[in-house]
Design brief:
188 residues, 3 helices
């Protein structure tokens, strides 16, 4: 397994990288999808590898970078995003997530396959007989194949003005490019 990325000055890891086993689920909270084929658009790629959290001095967001050995067909995620434009999933606690999925242009890297997926929508939480509470949710994910590995870089996008989102996505793109470039050099 290649080492996780070493980031330049201005970036840091608030916690130690963690190993991932091939049988770990792709999300912290198990999700049941209305259409299970849409799962790979929302969840992290599943496989043995490692993950780390990365922060930048220029942005409050935490970015999750994961490198796993996986046979995920990265290039097909763009087509899947068109078919799964509306995704619905439920948590084990009964919360409902409804998200619009769009494939956008990924940052340029040396990877042969890379995609960018943005999701935006709501999470509906029910507590007893109270009316459901809706929370805005969103994420931006960049995914690339480097040999037998899949690199995934993810940012959770809180509701914020467009310029704040653009800055956050810009930092995520840089983190992704660094991860792909370093992994490519290490696996040659």
């Amino acid at each position: 397994m290649p080492r996780l990325v070493e980031y330049p000055a201005g970036y840091e890891m608030p916690s130690k990288p963690e190993s991932i086993s091939a049988d770990q689920p792709g999300t912290a909270v198990p999700l049941t999808f209305t259409d299970d084929s849409c799962r790979s658009l929302i969840e992290n790629p599943v496989g043995a590898g490692a993950k780390e959290s990365v922060t930048s001095g220029t942005n409050p967001a935490v970015f999750l970078v994961q490198i796993v050995e996986s046979d995920l067909a990265v290039a097909e995620l763009t087509t899947l995003a068109q078919r799964c434009a509306d995704v619905e999933a439920r948590t084990s606690t009964g919360n409902t997530l409804r998200m619009k999925v769009t494939a956008i242009e990924p940052p340029k890297t040396v990877a042969t396959e890379s995609v960018a997926i943005r999701t935006a929508g709501t999470q509906e939480t029910r507590v007893g007989d109270a009316p459901p509470k809706q929370t805005q949710i969103g994420q931006q994910r960049y995914v690339a194949r480097v040999g037998k590995y899949v690199v995934s870089a993810l940012a959770i996008l809180p509701p914020m003005p467009e310029e704040g989102l653009a800055a956050e996505i810009g930092v995520l793109g840089t983190v992704f490019q660094i991860a792909v470039d370093r992994l490519t050099r290490e696996t040659r």
